[in-house]
Amino acid sequence: MLRRHVCLAVLSCTFLCTTIALAQSTLETVKSRGKLVCGVNTGLAGFATVGPDGKWHGFDVDYCRALAAAIFNDADKVEFRPLTAQARFTALQSKEIDVLSRNTTWTLSRDTSLGLNFSVILFYDGQGIMVPAKTQVKSAKNLDGATICVQSGTTTELNLADYFRRLQIKFTPVVFETIDQTYAAYDSGRCDAVTSDVSQLLAQKTTLKQPNDHVVLADVMSKEPLGPAVRHGDDQWLDMIKWVAFGLIQAEEFGVTSKNISSFTDSKDPNIRRFLGAEGGLGTMLGLSDDFMARVVRLVGNYGELFERHLQPLNLTRGVNALWTQGGMLYAPPFR
Known about the structure:
Layout: H1 2-23, H2 26-33, E1 36-41, E2 49-50, E3 56-57, H3 59-72, E4 78-83, H4 88-93, E5 99-100, H5 108-113, E6 116-118, E7 123-125, E8 127-132, E9 146-151, H6 155-167, E10 171-176, H7 179-187, E11 193-197, H8 198-205, E12 214-216, E13 224-226, E14 229-231, H9 235-254, H10 270-276, H11 282-285, H12 292-299, H13 303-310
Helix pairs in contact: 3-9, 3-12, 9-12
């Protein structure tokens, strides 16, 4: 009888310990680990690259740094995990990373079948085509019978097939696993054209041997809403991921920047006071310090600063990625 009770006690303890371990939230795991693990691109100018200083830089990288600032008040408490298009979802599903911040398109199938939650669209993009200028090709309609370089494991492959099917012209896809392989093949003349998101085309154009010898066509063949993704099953983590993203947008709308944030310390505007954590207790609702957005803006900046820092040098214009007050689509729900 005693042995039975001991066994039951051991089993109960094992079950309880396992339950507690499983119940630990992503935010608790990140805090106890002392750093955020963020999945990023293996190398895409403007979005995620390793600079001469050996550090990661880019728009997607700075979003990860914003999360670290919100959690730790230290934007450098991030481990960046470079991931190919094919490996990115598995890495998130298997908990190798806490969040995926890697120019990833939000689609219905990905949202429902991969166990993921997309949070906020941080960059509105569309798929385009780049060709050598010497070909004098003006439109995708002129690419009948062309070979086109494309990266595998992306929405790009299906979009390309659908678009050319609608145009009723034939093409031959030449598929590669990584961005570097794709553009190296195109630059060497192996393909007549290369296709990807317009932002990626402009970014990779700067890395070609003769950047000015290539043009991005006016054709836009898809909608590519890009934003961070997390695993299903942790609403608190999803909420935090969303509201830091919304905060970057709202900070720009308020005119609060990393350079002038100190001037807002004594603001009497209740909206700004709530936003910066002087009142309202909004951070507590997310499991963060109430001044989490003040930390983010002070250490990383607002959306406009991120865009100017990383994407403007690629000759990307704000376009639809401007604030709603300036004719764009960026709009944050109220911080209240």
